[in-house]
Specification:
- It is built from ten helices and six strands; from the N terminus they run αααααααβββαββαβα.
- It has 351 residues and is an alpha+beta fold.
- The strands form two sheets. Strands 1-6-2-3 form a four-stranded antiparallel β-sheet.
- Strand 2 and strand 3 form a beta hairpin.
Length: 351
C-alpha cells in the first residue's frame, strides 16, 4: 500500500489555529498607515520650514526689543511698534495651525475601517488568522500612535514659534486661537478627531463621507470647547487691570457697591458731566474718543471717583498647564469611548 506522504502536513498541526502574532499585525498596521502618514509628514515638513523661518525672524526681533535701552526712548518705542505690527497678525495661517490636529486625526482615521469596507477587502483581512477584533485593534492603535506623534510634534513647534508673542503679551496662551494648538491639548484634539473618523468609517463604510462627517463633528466640538474652556476652573476677579496682564479676560462689568451697573447708566453719568462715553467693542470696554465740555478729565477716573468700580473676571496665565491636562483628559476619554463603540459595533457586524 502506498501513502501520499506529500499531503501530510509536517511540523506543528496546531500552527494554523494559532492567531497571527501581534508583531506581524503591527507590521501590517505600519504598512497600511505608511502612505497616509507620509503625505501628512510632507505637509507638516512644509509648515515646519515656514515656522522655523518666521520663528527665527520673530525671535531675533523680540531679542532686539528686549535688549533696547532705555525702554521709554523713541528708538525702543519704534522697535516695539515694528515688532507688534509685523508679528501680531499671522493671518489665515493661524487658522491652519488651529485646525491642523483635527485634519490630521480625520485623514488618518477615516480609511482605517472605511477603506476595507468600501473596497470589500475586509473579507480577506478578517479571515487570515488575525480575526476582525485583533486586526482592528492593531490598525486602530497603530493609527492612534501616529496621530499622537504627528500632532505632538506639530504642537511643540507651534509653541516654540509663538513663545515671543506670549512673552510680549500679544497672544495669550489661553486664547482660543493658541491654546488648542499647543501643549498636550493638541494631541487630545488629534485623537478625538481620529476616533470620530474611525467610527464614521465603520458607519458610512466609505472613506470620503466618513472624512467629511468627522471633520464637521470635530469642528463643532472645537467651537463648543472654546466656549467652555475658560470655565474649567472658577475665574478670578479683580478691580485692578494690572493683574490681568498676560491672562485671558472672561468678562468685565461695572458695579456701584454691590449693585451691577449697566452701560446706559454709566453713559448718562458721563453725559451729565460732559465727558466722553463708554462703548462696548468686541466684548471689551472702550472709551469713545469724542470731545466734551468736561475738558481733559479721564472718563474712567471720573467714574471711579464717583464710587463706581470696574470688575474683571479672568483666567491667569499660570493655569495654562492645568487647563491643558483637563482638556487632554476629556478629549482622550472621548476618543477611548468612540473607539470602544467602534469595536463593539465591529464585533456584532457580519463578515
Amino acid at each position: 500500500m502506498s501513502t501520499a506522504t506529500g499531503l501530510i502536513p509536517t511540523g506543528d498541526p496546531l500552527a494554523a489555529a494559532r492567531p497571527l502574532p501581534w508583531r506581524n499585525l503591527i507590521w501590517v498596521a505600519w504598512r497600511r498607515h505608511r502612505p497616509t502618514a507620509g503625505v501628512i509628514a510632507a505637509v507638516l515638513a512644509a509648515l515646519t520650514i515656514y515656522l522655523v523661518i518666521t520663528g527665527l525672524s520673530m525671535r531675533s526681533a523680540w531679542h532686539d526689543v528686549q535688549a533696547c535701552t532705555p525702554q521709554n526712548s523713541r528708538a525702543c518705542s519704534f522697535a516695539w511698534d515694528q515688532f507688534q505690527n509685523t508679528h501680531s497678525d499671522p493671518g489665515v495661517v493661524s487658522a491652519l495651525f488651529l485646525f491642523a490636529p483635527l485634519l490630521i486625526g480625520a485623514f488618518v482615521g477615516a480609511p482605517v475601517i472605511g477603506r476595507e469596507l468600501e473596497h470589500g477587502t475586509f473579507r480577506y483581512a478578517w479571515t487570515q488568522g488575525a480575526g476582525r477584533i485583533r486586526w482592528a485593534v492593531a490598525m486602530i492603535v497603530g493609527g492612534a500612535v501616529a496621530v499622537a506623534a504627528l500632532t505632538g510634534a506639530f504642537g511643540a513647534l507651534v509653541a516654540w514659534h509663538d513663545r515671543p508673542l506670549w512673552e510680549a503679551d500679544i497672544t495669550p496662551r489661553l486664547g482660543g486661537g493658541e491654546f488648542p494648538a499647543t501643549g498636550v491639548a493638541v494631541i487630545g484634539w488629534g485623537l478625538a478627531a481620529y476616533a470620530a473618523a474611525v467610527l464614521a468609517g465603520l458607519l458610512w463604510r466609505r472613506v470620503l463621507p466618513a472624512l467629511g462627517s468627522a471633520v464637521v463633528a470635530a469642528f463643532a466640538l472645537a467651537f463648543a470647547a472654546s466656549r467652555l474652556r475658560l470655565h474649567y476652573l472658577a475665574p478670578l476677579r479683580t478691580r485692578s487691570l494690572d493683574h490681568v496682564v498676560g491672562s485671558q479676560v472672561v468678562a468685565q462689568w461695572w458695579q456701584q457697591g454691590a449693585t451691577h451697573v449697566g452701560y446706559a447708566e454709566l453713559n448718562g453719568v458721563l453725559r451729565a458731566a460732559g465727558l466722553s462715553q463708554i462703548q462696548i467693542s468686541g466684548g471689551k470696554t472702550a472709551v469713545q474718543a469724542a470731545p466734551g465740555p468736561g475738558g481733559g478729565t479721564d472718563p474712567i477716573s471720573y467714574l471711579l471717583s464717583r464710587g463706581y468700580a470696574q470688575w474683571t473676571s479672568y483666567q491667569p496665565a499660570g493655569r495654562y498647564w492645568a487647563f491643558q491636562w483637563i482638556e487632554f483628559g476629556w478629549l482622550a476619554a472621548l476618543a477611548v469611548l468612540l473607539l470602544t463603540i467602534t469595536l463593539l459595533l465591529l464585533r456584532r457586524r457580519d463578515a
